[in-house]
Amino acid sequence: MKIEIHLNNGMKFTAEVEGYTGSEFTKALNDQKVTHVNIGDLVLNKHTVLLVMPVQDVVGES
Predict the structure, then answer these.
(1) CA 14, CA 26: separation in Å to the nearest integer?
(2) Full-model pTM
């Protein structure tokens, strides 16, 4: 699944993540023992993540 990650400093990343589930990612973000999270090939400080959302590819737009 292709997802887009928005950070609190205005940066935005796109990542391809196999088997991404929002509920599992939420568990990692809410775990007090965890300071960083992996999203695809990215490693981010969990306190900088504002939004993670699926990317819809637009087909046939001209």
Answers:
(1) 18
(2) 0.80
